[in-house]
Predict the 3D structure of the following.
Amino acid sequence: MNLKITLFTFLCLSFSAFAQVEVDVNFDLRHVVGGQDTFDREKFIVIHADATENDYNVELGKLDSLLTRYDAHYGREAGRMRFLASQVSEDPSRPGFANPSSITSAGNQLNTNYNLFQPGKHATQNKGRVITAAQDRPFFPDGTSAGNFAFSQADGPADDDFGTATGEFMALFLRDGYGDNPTSGADGPPRPTWIEVINEPFFPLVDFTQGAPAASTEEIFELHRTVAKEIKAVNPDALVGGFTNAFPDLQFFGKDAGNQQLFGQWEERWKRFIDEVGEDMDFYSIHLYDFPSIQGSEILRKGGNIEATLDMIEHYNTIQWGSVKPWVISEYGSQLNDFFGQNWSPGRDWFMLRAFSSMMMQFMERPDVIEKTVPFVLARAEFLYAGAGVPGFVYPWRMMRRAEEAPAPTGGGLTQANLFPAFPNFTAPVDQEYDFTEIIKFYELWADVNGTRVDTKSTDLDLMVDAYVDIPNSKAYLILNSLDETDLTVNLNEKGVDLANVTGVNIKQLFLGADGNPTLTSEDFTAVPATVTLREEANMIIEYSFDQTPVVDETSTEQKIYATTYNQNIVANQPITFTIPGVSLGTQGEAVLRLGIGRLINTQLIPVVTVNGTQVSIPADYRGDTQDDRVNRGDQNIFFGMLEADVPYNLLNAGDNTVVVTFPDNGGAISSCALQTFDFTREVIRTSDILSTPDIDNPESKISVYPNPTNNQLHISGKFDNWKIYNVLGFTVKEGEGAAINVTDLATGLYYVSFDNTANKVLKFMKN
């Protein structure tokens, strides 16, 4: 296979007709979920490094750009623990255990070296709390040498203490390998906040052992319990979690002979982990990757697959342990399997860029339960460079590249074979120059976003939207991200703000250019555009500048409530009943029903659903791709995604609510069921409600207004109890109960009138 041609083919743009989407943003309506209402850059704008990362030692200017100019934060390191293990000696009285005094000595030396030789990092060393992770080897006790000894494979004092030697080492490493050492008082880099027991254990120890004996699930999970206990005995404030799942394909068949069925992997791994280890974990960690091309198939997680995966784990943990466990997404992005043989190219970086923004937008929807997210790109990552004359593997996930790797100026984009320069060995010359890869565009795009989260709504699930008001700086940010493989025309409906106060608009957009390379544009406008064109799978950030900052004085409070049961098998025409307990309702609001679905490809995906006895519409256009490429992948021939449907707020009960789901055919399961509610402190009129309202001249409409346009009086015919009139900003300008309304005092323009405090009855009229 010619991989360069394949990559070029994957990146060719499709010039299809634009689809049109309505986006509402209520700048005065603060969006709160679990007490979280701000954009936490430390949580989302993150690099896979900490202050001890040696790759940046020769490029401190680039590190400073990331941390200061682009306001990124440190996120994760996974090498310091293994290095320290290679430096320590075995305890002479306890075979297989590290000598505690040797750990202290080696930790002090690491800290001394950091203080002496990396002073350029000290000023920013606290820029972001950090995750640390143990690697499978040498820390999984299987006889692999750590350098001077191998960790003991024997149990500790109890039968279920497998990995005691590993746990003790990790506990002392955390104590002695960082600053404010309580043993010696030595200073050094900041201590990590989150500790992952072992990085991606099933991938090398069970699924791809390369001929080595496979570990057992029991051993892996027992190691998690033991390590958590040992770490907390020495570091009681440490947060310990796992199981740092590399490829969480919950819907796959199991590995056990008796578990060859849908959601077999769920039963064997995540469910068992939650049952046996969940109580001992402070957080769950997971890695989420798109596969833009693997054996010719496109397997994407972004969109509904991520939603279904996280919801199923959250749902079951709520049933088993009473609440949602916090998340650490310690790696996310894109795998590049079919392109591994290629050298660096801007186009290949696009696969990572499109995954970063899409997935991060999804994580931003869970700010109350996600504690840290780390896009997977290392710094220089030259550990796989080949020597002269030896074919090598150029690590794809890099923030920096050698300057010589740039494609030739006369090249044809991705079809240009930019040959990797041959060096005498894999070590770079002392005067080697480095440039940022295209990944820097992700940080450039998001450099300024800050503020209080406010209410947004899109009429298309494939157009994800979020918004923030930066009150101190008199700015606001509207963020649009497309999962659609076509360009979108987006109509912007800004409410709760006087657009006359906007002094300027800047629009940044990151997309795949016609040349097959990532493109980041930035345009300034003096007025607010009514529509924007969002390119295929692009990310756009619209920055509004104000002379008077919007007042965010109303609130949308979001809750997410899981049903009392989960993972229900689907039988043709047999209703499946879920109970959503403990729903609290305000006087006005919105609701969304979420159903995780796992079924074989080509079965029916859209069921009949009722909420409290009334049928609700389930959109056929669910979030993300159709997952059709899975059809040629054996037992992976499974759709696993999320159906999301608006539920009229007036259908809900305070307390228990009943959801009934019926499919016409057999097979698969409803993996999760949840209800999101959004309680508003003011009435919210959606543009989609107005556009879908019957025309006022339609004789089938039960309520009509006339004359339209009007100068003085507006008359109402039909049955209603009360009415409210809103201006185009969403503010109430009049309300009452009579059938005749004096509108003389209203300014000329467009208005909306709603009836009986419901968005289901909204008409529009013009005041001359």
Summary: DSSP finds 15 helices and 37 strands in the chain. The domain at 3-11+39-442 is CATH 3.20.20.80 (TIM Barrel). Residues 1-18, 408-425, 693-701 have pLDDT under 50 and may be disordered.
